[in-house]
């Protein structure tokens, strides 16, 4: 019987976010499909710690920069000894090192190793050389992001592929734990409809849009609450904005909540008011759990929701439109729930872990 094929995952970030969590989910899914996986990441990084908790094989590599000789030598040794069929790279430093190692491994008589570059953003004008010649494929989480690469007509379209994220819906459904005590106490002390929002605290995530919309919404719904899950650099700015708008009793910054399902299960509606968003995950999870959802019509978000079929879309940054949409959901709970119920079937079909894994295997073996 043939030995299982090995796939490396590399990441040169110290932090952990949706991209890193997705990589860990893919590793587990590929193992279930009969592959061996190995994570190569920075020492003491958050993803290394999380992989240890999940029982996933991992080896620390410095990845200090794209030309770090000790990292190159360590990665080359691992490629030659473990013979991976592909390297799935998530960071710029590890991706370039993986490409150079793949070339050297071939020069030393080994087999060619496919290097798949995962990109969840694109700033500025993309250069064609890297995407045409360095990476076997570049994977984007949405068609919107793919088109941002293809504005450079020199980039070959067949080198940029869309791989929608896979969500462990069964795990999400089973994550029926209780809210942290501090969140539960705040909700108990402030009864009323709950608007939930899970995102890093940065300007492009649109928290200030909802804060300003809330000023109008609470005129019709005086007990409305806005619960923000996440951390980030803008926390002090948001705290100041909440105070300036007189929303202290209506808004709670809950910090990072994992899993997110207990918050969504306690929510009247979920919002994703991003000003920039390659795709987003929070709104997909909300639809799956049957929570009425309102999102910005921006970036890749329209690929995750059907306007007035599975949820509502609002123009980004339009505070009055956001206030109107929130009020509509609160005024029409039956109709809003019907949209959410249709959303579950939509996202289950499009963003399942099974579909993501099958597509990733196809790309690796192509």
From TrEMBL:
Pfam families: Glyco_transf_4, Glycos_transf_1
Every Glycosyl transferase family domain range: 201-344
InterPro entries named among the record's database cross-references: Glyco_trans_1, Glyco_trans_4-like_N
GO molecular function: glycosyltransferase activity
Chain ranges of the Glycosyltransferase subfamily 4-like N-terminal domain: 16-168
Protein name, per record: Glycosyltransferase family 4 protein
């Amino acid at each position: 019987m043939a030995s299982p094929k090995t796939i490396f995952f590399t990441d040169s970030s110290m932090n952990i976010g949706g991209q890193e969590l997705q990589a860990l989910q893919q590793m587990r899914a590929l193992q279930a499909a009969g592959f061996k996986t190995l994570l190569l990441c920075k020492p003491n990084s958050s993803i290394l710690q999380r992989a240890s908790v999940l029982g996933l094989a991992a080896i620390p590599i410095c990845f200090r920069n794209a030309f770090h000789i000790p990292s190159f030598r360590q990665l080359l040794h691992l490629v030659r000894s473990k013979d991976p069929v592909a390297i799935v790279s998530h960071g710029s430093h590890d991706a370039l090192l993986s490409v150079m190692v793949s070339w050297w491994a071939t020069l030393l008589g080994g087999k060619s190793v496919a290097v798949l570059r995962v990109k969840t953003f694109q700033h500025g004008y993309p250069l064609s050389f890297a995407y045409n010649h360095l990476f076997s494929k570049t994977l984007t989480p949405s068609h919107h992001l793919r088109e941002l690469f293809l504005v450079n007509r020199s980039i070959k379209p067949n080198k940029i592929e869309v791989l929608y994220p896979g969500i462990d819906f069964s795990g999400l459904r089973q994550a029926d734990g209780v809210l942290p005590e501090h969140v539960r106490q705040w909700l108990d002390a402030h009864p009323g409809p709950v608007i939930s929002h899970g995102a890093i605290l940065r300007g492009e995530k649109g928290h200030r849009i909802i804060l300003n919309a809330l000023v109008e919404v609470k005129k019709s719904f005086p007990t409305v609450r806005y619960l923000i899950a996440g951390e980030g650099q803008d926390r002090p700015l948001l705290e100041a904005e909440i105070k300036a708008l007189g929303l202290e009793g209506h808004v709670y910054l809950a910090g990072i909540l994992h899993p997110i399902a207990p918050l969504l299960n306690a929510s009247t509606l979920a919002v994703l008011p991003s000003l920039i968003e390659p795709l987003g995950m929070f709104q997909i999870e909300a639809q799956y759990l049957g929570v009425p959802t309102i999102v910005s019509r921006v970036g890749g978000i329209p690929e995750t929701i059907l306007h007035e079929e599975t949820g509502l879309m609002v123009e980004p940054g339009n505070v009055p439109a956001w206030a109107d949409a929130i009020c509509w959901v609160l005024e029409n709970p039956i109709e809003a729930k019907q949209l959410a119920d249709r959303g579950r079937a939509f996202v289950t079909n499009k963003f399942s872990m099974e579909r993501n894994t099958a597509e990733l295997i196809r790309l690796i073996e192509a």
